[in-house]
């Protein structure tokens, strides 16, 4: 009888931990840890409207980082002239310290500016 009570408590504890993690991720936004890759052309991240962005991006080559709307991202992909909310061009490292994201559909876009770049590492926390 003691073993079944312990098993029920363990299942309940695991369920509570799962609910807590789910709440934290949904309440505080997207958390992306250490994306390391051979960056082809660009990578984009959805951002929460009316939030703050913290974290960093670093690479072993030059990248350009843009915060822009989804409409401007379409122009970016089609190599048309586009507007951006914030930009860091031809850098190896960007740090975000509570960057305010306006209300709306914004993306963080990381563009590879070099051929043969080996890796890019990203850690972002986007929270309301």
Q: Report the major sheet.
A: 6 strands, antiparallel
Unreliably modeled segments: none
CATH topology: Jelly Rolls
Helix proportion range: 25-40%
Strand elements, count: 6
The overall number of domains is 1
Binned strand content: over 45%
Q: Can you give me a brief rundown of this structure?
A:
The protein is of the alpha+beta class. Helices cover 27% and strands 45% of the residues.
Q: Which descriptors apply to this entry?
A:
Jelly Rolls; alpha+beta; 2 helices; 128 residues
Report on the structure:
This protein is of the alpha+beta class and 128 residues long. 27% of the residues lie in helices and 45% in strands. Strands 1, 2, 3, 4, 5 and 6 form a six-stranded antiparallel beta sheet that branches. It starts with a helix and ends with a strand.
């Amino acid at each position: 009888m003691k073993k079944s009570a312990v098993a029920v408590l363990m299942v309940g504890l695991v369920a509570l931990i799962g609910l807590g993690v789910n709440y934290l991720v949904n309440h505080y936004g997207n958390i992306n840890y250490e994306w390391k890759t051979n960056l082809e052309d660009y990578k984009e991240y959805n951002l929460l409207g009316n939030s703050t962005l913290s974290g960093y991006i670093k690479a072993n080559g030059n990248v350009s980082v843009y915060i822009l709307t989804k409409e401007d991202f379409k122009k970016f992909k089609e190599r048309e002239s586009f507007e951006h909310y914030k930009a860091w061009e031809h850098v190896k490292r960007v740090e975000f310290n509570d960057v305010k994201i306006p209300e709306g559909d914004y993306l963080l876009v990381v563009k590879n500016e070099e051929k043969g770049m080996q890796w890019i590492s990203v850690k972002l926390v986007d929270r309301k």
